[in-house]
Amino acid sequence: MSEAIALIDYGAGNLHSVHNALKAAGAGHIAVTADPDIVRGARRIVLPGVGAFSACRNGLWSIPGMVEALEERVIRGGVPFLGICVGMQLLATRGLEHGETPGLGWIPGDVKRIERTDPRIKVPHMGWNDVALTAHKGAADLIEEGEAYFLHSYHFVPDDGHHVAAMTDHGGGIVAAVARDNLLGVQFHPEKSQAYGLALLARFLEWDPQ
User: Where is the active site (predicted)?
Assistant: First the structure.
């Protein structure tokens, strides 16, 4: 299992579509797993997420030893990590959906509801939208200009703007991607973003942040 890509199964992700997209992007063995020991041996880790921040957080924390295994492998081990949608939002310090819920805290910031400043703007932010780069370094190098598919009502607001890798516009700026060291998080869904998303996943599969 040491060569596996660990796709974390905590009851809150679009696992089938993400698995198929990773395979289409060139992945070899993918372990869809809720086993912390497999995570500790993985060479890449993908954390998907669909739904409410608190539900996803509780699902991840309910697996004994999983958060500790992720911290050991990602933060201390430095393996490439990709968070998708709520999987990206869980990198934050806290989510403010249905009260305050602590996140992993790997990239400091809050997850807040998208504010409707224009009645023509609909929430959730759903559909295709532009991805505009804001940084070119480290994990941010994996992001390219293009169009991706979004579906979310809450958005990640990092404390440090240097962690923002890309933005999109939906009645105002919304963070499309965050990056730090060996961490990349995308608010959009690569598995639903056709050629653009598969190209991103292919770059992630080849990425060596060391």
Answer: 85, 189, 191
Please tell me whether the overall predicted TM-score, pTM, comes out greater than 0.85 for this model: yes
Q: So which residues are the catalytic ones?
A: 85, 189, 191
Write down the pLDDT at residue 1: 35
Tell me the C-alpha to C-alpha distance, in Å, between residue 182 and each of 60, 131, 207, 208: 20, 21, 9, 8
Q: Cα–Cα distance between 203 and 163 in angstroms, integer?
A: 19
pLDDT (tens digit, 9 = 90+) per residue, 87-100?
Answer: 999 999 999 988 89
What is the CATH classification number for the domain harbouring 85? Answer: 3.40.50.880
The tokens 């805290």 sit on which residue? 105
For the chain, residues with pLDDT lower than 50 are 1-2
Quote the number of domains for the chain.
Answer: 1
CA–CA–CA angle 49, 53, 56 (5° rounding): 50
SS3 108: coil
